[in-house]
Design brief:
heterodimer, A: 683 residues, Alpha-Beta Plaits, 5 domains, seven-stranded mixed beta sheet, 49% helix, B: 307 residues, alpha+beta, BirA Bifunctional Protein, domain 2, Methane Monooxygenase Hydroxylase, Chain G, domain 1, 2 domains, nine-stranded mixed beta sheet, globular
């Protein structure tokens, strides 16, 4: 068994592409090996800012010849089928195929002989194919060449069983081919000259000696451990940020965390601003003090071991951060000179969407909506909701949000607090974009709920009105997220909002229902239960709808519920079968059965049980006591069971009796369907 | 390769930074060109980049380009932002295999010691909507400060390049602020402190920033600019028909600058903005196409190139 080592060295690969590229490399190489009929053991792929590397263990050094037979189309089959067969089998013409009688007629057969031989001869072709197929999100040409890669490719290590594979990649143009070899380079600044390697273990060790940590997981560990130690020494805590950690690990081959200090004069700027500025512009980690507030230290991860122990690097980073934060502080000080109200005229100049007017138009719509919605939200002061809606977009024209768009809302809240506006208004401005995703915090304060709902319902209804609906993969206005936001805010806060008062388009209501279904399915609610309740239609109160779903789901969790469902199924089946035979039947069996026509004790018992259920059901449904409604059904089961045991429905010689009994069965169905369409429930 | 950093001491002022970069890139085989004599938003607009990036002929050049971005004017009050600033640009076509090492050599030359500082290549894709151009590359960071942009051109004027140019752009003021540890552009020493008449960047350009900002935002005659835009557009199209891509391209540069001024004056609405950008792009495209024709006709075939 032998090992394959592959390394593709290039100029610096964007951090965000590295993980995916390593995964793709692994997948493509595995596919290639399988297609070539090569067995293999463990496969691992790695990425650093300058290289993709892969090791395959347990490869055989040679393959035996393989003979494979493939059945083709029937002799005399259409030309197209024959051509497809020839192409698939790699044959030039039918002369190379054989006719054979399979017992079911004569068929063409191809006998494909796959030459075995040394694995080393098969690998270069596989590597070449993999490199051509590797899907970089963005790739480029360089020099005079025609090949594309994420950035210029510099060298290739391709070793099998300790020996260099014979092969090369031609970048094209006037450029020399890149031959497979056994040499690579270490860290860009901490190592010089080329490094010869003999296998994976040697490669990892020599890279490490040349200041390159191959495994991104290990680089992350070093960053984290180093950062935490520095923080502990400075008596602060690292503010963890997995996304940032991933990115930083993709920017360095030799991570060296260092601790810097934020100039004290910036510490009165809101912490969100400092954190965003440090993260997005500089890729620094923030730290917190013992009381959880932002501390004045930051962690920068350098890619080098400096001669002076990093003093110049820390100093340089502190300087650039000072410049960045001066900008931020300037915006913070400058923005607060104008009140939010004074910014509103500028919203008239910002086009929200060509067909939907400006941000100012949008604000007007949100105000009206927030006012209406507030009446449905317990504790929401309508005047506060209108004020918050009025000011919620004002920060879009502040300097800070111009610089850091991700601070929209957050800055509005700070500026509102600075103006001494009520806290509920400020919080509603800050919360109105939330929730930004399934894991984001959902607003829960009454005024916040009203404004956040207004913002999302305006987006949905506005874009729907101009025919901009999300399609399969395209959702440029994030309407799915808006819909999910509406659902989460309403459901998580138990808001009794009649959606149809706000959403006039049936199609949009349907879209919201679909999102709700998806969300419930993700939460593990039975899809048939969801369908059964949704089939009732006309329900625009999500809270009531969910209560129904819950009641039905819990009913079906009991034995009584399951048996009742069986009884319902029998009743419904008989009615459906009869309706099929006689198209006019449906009209004549609508309504309650005639009491005088009830003959047998069993059918009388069912009628009386139904009567009891209906009497209990009405008030229970009205009180939205769906569990109570389900309980009422429990009395139905025994009478229905005996009915089916003793009573013949289709009495041939008494048509009136037959119709009356069908009426009875139909009523069972109708009564139960008033809570959910039980026909949708799968047994 | 000779090492010019040994020949010249580390720069101590703005003009020595320029001189050092010129000497360094000259030593790398680049022509040292002079700034193009028209107003433009960035060194990329210089025909030595836009047009020379197209066609089969190799081209190594470097130059300083005064760059104007009217809406970046801050009346001289912002320590980091100017409406008129300098870019130093090096373009190597086709990009040689060791272009990054050569670039790092330029950092050494201007006094950045890589054994003391942390150099990073951070993804930064470049796109110029008005030139119909894009490329992939990096922002280069030194201790967290952006010191250059590095781009491999893939398309210019909507045309896929035949030979890829490696383009290196140094924002000279920002780089100088880093090198000379100044908090504002205006405090940068323009010449040496021991000169007979030592002057700062502010001594040379503060009044210009104040006056030009006022002009850009408040005074510029918008009717005239709209007219000039239309005239330049028309002239560009007319000259292209005469198969004269170089003078045509100058009209394209003119139109682009008129647009930038109108944009700063705030008289172009959001929707119009896009259409003006597209109009300039159409001109740039037409110039690039016409240029390419002349290159193909005149080309003696690519000379010997490596890289």
């Amino acid at each position: 068994m032998a090992e394959l080592l592959l390394e593709l060295l290039s100029e610096e690969i964007p951090a965000r592409m590295q993980t995916r590229a390593a995964d793709d490399l692994k997948r493509l190489v595995c596919d290639g090996l399988k297609a070539a009929g090569l067995e293999f053991g463990d496969v691992r792929a790695f990425a650093t800012p300058r290289r993709l590397a892969l090791v395959v263990e347990g490869l055989p050094t040679a393959r035996a010849d393989v003979c494979e037979e493939r059945r083709g189309p029937r002799v005399g089959a259409p030309e197209q089928a024959v051509q497809g067969f020839l192409k698939g089998a790699g044959l030039a013409s039918l002369d190379q195929a054989e006719k054979r009688d399979s017992g079911k007629g004569e068929f063409w057969f191809a006998v494909i002989k796959k030459k075995g031989g040394p694995t080393a001869e098969a690998l270069p072709g596989i590597i070449d194919k993999v490199m051509k197929a590797l899907p970089w999100p963005k790739s480029m040409k360089w020099g005079s060449g025609t090949m594309t890669w994420v950035r210029p490719l510099q060298s290739i290590v391709a070793l099998f069983d300790g020996k260099v594979l014979a092969g090369e990649i031609a970048p094209g143009g006037a450029m020399a081919p890149i031959r497979f070899g056994d040499t690579t380079r270490g860290h860009r600044f901490l190592s010089s000259g080329s490094i010869r390697v003999s296998g994976f273990a040697d490669y990892v060790a020599k890279l490490q000696a040349a200041h390159v940590i191959l495994d991104p997981a290990e680089r992350k560990k070093i960053v984290l451990a180093g950062a935490q130690q520095l923080c502990a020494e400075a008596q602060v805590a690292l503010k963890s940020d997995d996304g940032l950690l991933d990115e930083v690990a993709g920017l360095v081959e030799w991570p060296v965390p260092m601790l810097g200090t934020i100039d004290g004069k910036f510490m009165d700027v809101p912490p969100e601003v400092l954190i965003v500025s440090m993260k997005t512009h500089q890729r620094y980690f923030a730290t917190t003090a013992k009381d959880g507030t932002l501390a004045n230290r930051f962690v920068v991860v350098a890619n080098t071991v400096a001669r002076d122990g990093g003093a110049a690097i820390v100093d340089g980073n502190e300087r650039v951060l000072r410049a960045r934060l001066s900008d931020a502080k300037f915006f913070w000080d400058h923005d607060r000179k104008a009140r939010l109200e004074e910014r509103l005229p500028a919203l008239k100049d910002i086009v929200f969407h060509a067909k939907l007017g400006t941000q100012a138009d949008r604000v007007t719509r949100i105000e009206i909506l927030a006012d209406k919605i507030a009446t449905y939200v317990k504790g929401a002061d309508s005047a506060q909701a209108i004020l918050a809606a009025h000011l919620c977009k004002a920060d879009l024209v502040s300097g800070m949000v111009g610089e850091f768009p991700e601070l929209q809302g957050i800055m509005g809240r700070y500026y509102a607090l600075d103006e001494k506006l009520p806290a509920a208004v400020a919080d509603a401005i800050g919360d109105h974009y939330a929730p930004a995703g399934p894991n984001d915090r959902c607003p829960s304060a009454p005024v916040s709920i009203a404004v956040a709902l207004a913002d999302k319902l305006d987006s949905l209804t506005s874009f729907w009105s101009i025919g901009e609906k999300p399609t399969g993969s395209r959702d440029p206005f994030a309407l799915r997220r808006a819909a999910l936001g509406v659902i989460r805010i309403v459901v998580e806060n138990g808001i009794r909002l009649p959606l149809s008062h706000f959403v006039k388009s049936g199609d949009l209501l349907e879209f919201l229902a679909e999102r709700l279904k998806v969300q419930m399915r993700e939460k593990g609610v039975r899809h048939d239960v969801v369908d059964a309740v949704f089939a009732l239609g006309g329900e625009d109160d999500l809270v009531r709808l969910l209560a129904r779903v819950e009641a039905v789901q819990s009913l079906l969790g009991t034995d009584a519920g399951k048996n009742l469902l069986t009884a319902y199924g029998r009743a419904a089946n008989i009615v459906r079968a009869e309706e099929k035979k006689d198209k006019t039947l449906a009209a004549s069996i609508a309504g309650a059965p005639e009491v005088t026509l009830l003959e047998q004790a069993e059918e009388k018992a069912v009628a009386s049980a139904l009567h009891d259920v209906e009497r209990a059901l009405g008030p229970a449904l009205k009180a939205e006591d769906f569990a109570g409604a389900m309980k009422a059904f429990a009395g139905l089961r025994a009478p229905i069971d005996s009915f089916f045991e003793k009573v013949t429905v289709n009495v041939a010689d008494k048509p009136d009796l037959r119709i009356n009994r069908l009426k009875l069965l139909n009523q069972i169905r109708a009564t139960m369907d008033s809570v959910a369409d039980f026909s949708k429930i799968e047994g | 390769m000779s090492n010019p950093s040994a020949a010249r001491a580390k720069p101590t002022c703005f003009q020595e930074l320029i001189l050092t970069l010129q000497e360094y890139w000259a030593s790398q085989g680049c022509l040292i060109l002079q700034p193009f004599d028209m107003e433009m938003g960035a060194g990329t607009f210089h025909p030595a980049t836009t047009l020379r990036a197209l066609g089969p002929r190799p081209w190594y050049a470097a130059y300083v380009q005064p760059s104007r971005r009217p809406s970046d004017g801050r009346y001289g009050e912002n320590p980091m932002r100017l409406q008129h600033y300098y870019q130093f640009q090096a373009i190597l076509k086709p990009s040689p295999a060791d272009i990054l090492e050569r670039y790092l050599g330029s950092l050494e030359a201007i006094g950045i010691d890589t054994s003391l500082h942390d150099i990073r290549f951070v993804e930064d894709d470049w796109e110029s909507p008005t030139l119909g151009a894009w490329g992939l590359g990096w922002e280069v960071w030194c201790d967290g400060s952006e010191v250059s942009q590095f781009t491999y051109f893939q398309q210019v004027g909507g045309i896929e390049v035949e030979l890829v140019s490696g383009e290196i752009t140094y924002g000279l003021e920002r780089l100088a602020m880093y090198l000379f540890d100044k908090k504002t552009i205006y405090d940068l020493p323009f010449n040496r402190a021991d000169s007979e008449v030592p002057l700062t960047y502010g001594d040379v350009y503060l009044q210009n920033e104040q006056e030009q900002s006022t002009y850009n935002f408040e005074v510029a005659d918008t009717d005239m600019l709209f007219r000039h835009f239309a005239d330049a557009e028309k002239e560009c199209q007319r000259v292209i028909e005469r198969k004269l891509p170089l003078p045509a391209y100058e009209q394209c540069i003119k139109a682009s600058h008129c647009f930038n001024l109108l944009d700063a004056r705030g008289v172009i609405s959001v929707t119009e903005r896009q259409s003006y950008i597209l109009r300039v792009r159409d001109l740039a495209k037409a110039c690039c196409e016409a240029w390419l024709v002349t290159q193909k006709e005149a080309a003696p075939g690519p000379s010997k190139v490596e890289g």
